[in-house]
Amino acid sequence: MPTSAYAEVVSRTHPDKSLIALGVRQPWIELILRGEKTVEVRSSHTRQRGTIYLYSSKKPADLAAADAAAERHDVDMTEVPYGVVVGTIEIVDSRPCTPDDEDASQVPAELLEDRYAWELANPVRLDEPLVPRFLPYGVWFYPFRRRGTVR
Question: Model-level pTM greater than 0.85?
C-alpha cells in the first residue's frame, strides 16, 4: 500500500489531464484498490508503465470467477461505483501469466492460459470518484482531455 503522503499528493492533483485510464469491471477494480488483486489479466502485453487512472466500467464482470471473488472478499456489488474514475495504480510490468498468478489475479489458473499478467502496485483510491469528461473509446483512454490533443 502507498504511504499516506503519496496518497495525499495524488488526491490533491486530480484530475490530471496527462494520465491515461484503463477501464476495469467490478469487482476487479474494487479488489485492485484494496490491494487484493495485484495482477490484471489481459489478452495482450502492454508497454504502458507508471501511474494510470482506474475507470470503473458501467457494467460488472460477467464471469463466475468475478462473482466468487466478490463473495470471497465481501464486495457488495450494489455499493461499488460504476462509470467513474475511482483511483490510480502503477503498472510495473507485463509478462505472460503463469498458474502461480492465481492468487494475485483472483482468477482460477485455467483462465490464465495464453493471457498476460499486468503487474500492479501502489493502489490509491480517490477521496471522491471523478466523472470523466470523455468516455472510454478503447482499452486505454484519456478521461479528462480529447484524444490527440497536446498534454
Answer: yes
123 in a structural domain: yes
Q: Is residue 141 part of a domain?
A: no
Write the pLDDT tens digit of every residue in 118-149: 999 999 999 999 999 998 887 899 999 876 66
Answer for the pair 121, 80: CB distance below 8 angstroms, yes or no: no
Q: What's the DSSP call for residue 99? A: G
Round to the nearest angstrom and report the end-to-end CA distance of the chain. Answer: 29
- Residue ranges in the chain whose pLDDT is less than 70: 1-12, 147-151
Write a three-state SS string for 108-147: CHHHCCCCEEEEEEEEEEEEEEECCCCCCCCCEECCCCCC
* Residues of the domain holding 14: 4-133
